[in-house]
Write a structure and sequence with these properties.
- By secondary structure, this protein is mainly alpha-helical.
- The chain has 2 domains: 12-139, Clp, N-terminal domain (Double Clp-N motif); 154-217, no CATH class.
- It has 11 helices and no strands.
- The radius of gyration is 26 Å and the shape is elongated.
- Residues 6-136 form the Clp R domain.
């Protein structure tokens, strides 16, 4: 009955989901494994549940709905090969070397019977939810900008404007002016959260790379 060939780049959780899906199909006496079995198994896995919770999708209600579908009559052909092809496409899109439960979840959303879409978990939303979960796991919660926002002090900005005027007139700044700037920068950097600034810069770079990959999949050259 297996409708897939295991690969070394599959995560342990992804393989567990496949085994659960096949077991579910056998238990229910179904002739083949389908995306509904995959989705039912995925909704037991921590990764997909976290992504769906991030999107405010009621996971337990969705799983109950999938169970109702499985209790009825399913088509006699498997759509799993298309699901796995879509999941592998997501893996390639992210330029990583392992296929995860999140990739399988998006694959089901792309090629499945619409149960995820009915719940508001479209492929695009799932991609965004997966990205949010990933970046939170790697970088921690997004920086809380607001009244603590990183802004250049007015005095330092005015001094930089003054230095800019000198540069445009090809005049060299005197030592006193440069010393004042060094003092202001030193004072300012004392309360700037540099870790937060670097983290946000990394997140922005990652987002740019992700958007570039998405553009290329639609035939758009981001460099033009």
């Amino acid at each position: 009955m297996p409708a897939y060939t295991p690969h070394s780049e599959w995560t342990a959780d992804a393989l567990t989901v496949v085994a659960r899906a096949e077991r579910e199909a056998v238990t229910r006496g179904h002739r083949c494994v389908r995306s509904e079995h995959y989705l039912y198994a995925l909704l037991e896995a921590d990764g997909p549940r976290t992504v769906l919770a991030t999107l405010d999708v009621p996971v337990d209600r969705l799983r109950h709905r999938v169970g109702e579908v499985l209790a009825g009559e399913l088509p006699g052909t498997s759509d799993v090969p298309r699901v796995l092809e879509a999941a592998r496409f997501e893996m390639d899109l992210e330029e990583i070397r392992y296929l995860s439960t999140e990739h399988l979840l998006i694959g089901v959303a792309v090629e499945g019977d619409g149960l995820l879409d009915e719940a508001g978990a479209t492929p695009d939303r799932l991609r965004e939810g997966t990205y949010q979960v990933f970046r939170s796991a790697v970088y921690g919660p997004p920086p809380a900008f607001g009244h603590h926002a990183v802004t250049v002090p007015p005095a330092l900005r005015a001094l930089d404007d003054e230095l800019g005027v000198l540069a445009r007139h090809h005049e060299a700044p005197d030592d006193e002016l440069l010393a004042r700037r060094r003092d202001l920068v030193s004072e300012w950097s004392g309360w700037v959260d540099t870790v937060r600034v670097v983290r946000e810069a990394e997140l922005l770079r990652a987002e740019v790379r992700r958007l570039h990959r998405l553009l290329r999949t639609h035939g758009v050259d981001p460099g033009r």
